Amino acid sequence: xxxxxxxxxxxxxxxxxxxxxxxxxxxxxxxxxxxxxxxxxxxxxxxxxxxxxxxxxxxxxxxxxxxxxxxxxxxxxxxxxxxxxxxxxxxxxxxxxxxxxxxxxxxxxxxxxxxxxxxxxxxxxxxxxxxxxxxxxxxxxxxxxxxxxxxxxxxxxxxxxxxxxxxxxxxxxxxxxxxxxxxxxxxxxxxxxxxxxxxxxxxxxxxxxxxxxxxxxxxxxxxxxxxxxxxxxxxxxxxxxxxxxxxxxxxxxxxxxxxxxxxxxxxxxxxxxxxxxxxxxxxxxxxxxxxxx
Length: 293
What we know:
The protein is elongated, with a radius of gyration of 23 Å. It is of the alpha/beta class. Strand 3, helix 10 and strand 4 form a beta-alpha-beta unit. It folds into three domains: 83 residues, Multidrug-efflux Transporter Regulator, Chain: A, Domain 2 (Orthogonal Bundle), CATH 1.10.1660.10; 81 residues, Methionine synthase domain (Methyltransferase, Methionine Synthase (B12-binding Domains), Chain A, domain 1); 116 residues, 3-Layer(aba) Sandwich (Rossmann fold). It has 13 helices and seven strands. 26% of the residues are buried. It holds the Pfam family B12-binding_2. This is MerR family transcriptional regulator. One of its GO terms (molecular function) is DNA binding.
């Protein structure tokens, strides 16, 4: 992977260590060694970031920075491998972040399994993976990670949810009805929708999952041909209020009397403009007996 160049503010955002602390550690202990651009601007590399993330883990487990600074990288890695991770959310987040930065599938799989063994699959996604995605979304927007890294981690998580869904042995309960799940046209981020599909099937609902970027014309034909108990969709790209109201009315009027759950960002002050069968994420979580992380 090509070397990335980070500012000290980037390191602060990614590692959670204050820039002031990084500077002290740099001067006093030589923890990181910044380079200089042709215009004499300081920058840090992937190696610097990885080292800071590892050091942050050890400090959370009581290791003193003066002791860590004397360790070689392989000794630091050995100490981390031997940690009893327990249930520290910060430790989990840093391991997930390290797997993202290093494109380390093995570390991701081990971290995911550690969380799942401690908290179960659903809470792993709700309390750890969803907040992690929110964090890397912000980092992607400000340019501290690149799209390839985001795609890498998204692919791994997507596969985890699909495999978990395929392993559900519970048979669908006809009395619960059928749920339709889809992303509207030009919507491609389906991890949230895949998770709802998993949760619904785990609770005995039959689901029809259409996936990404479904043109409304083809959706209309499916709606007219099938009888659905409710519909779940997600708009990850925020829409102007007028466009959201138009889409919600179009969809809700196509399924009169059927609840439609919109699980993405919702514009403010539009409740009075929406159809009565338009519901939101909190309503779906209530239906499924879930709590937000």
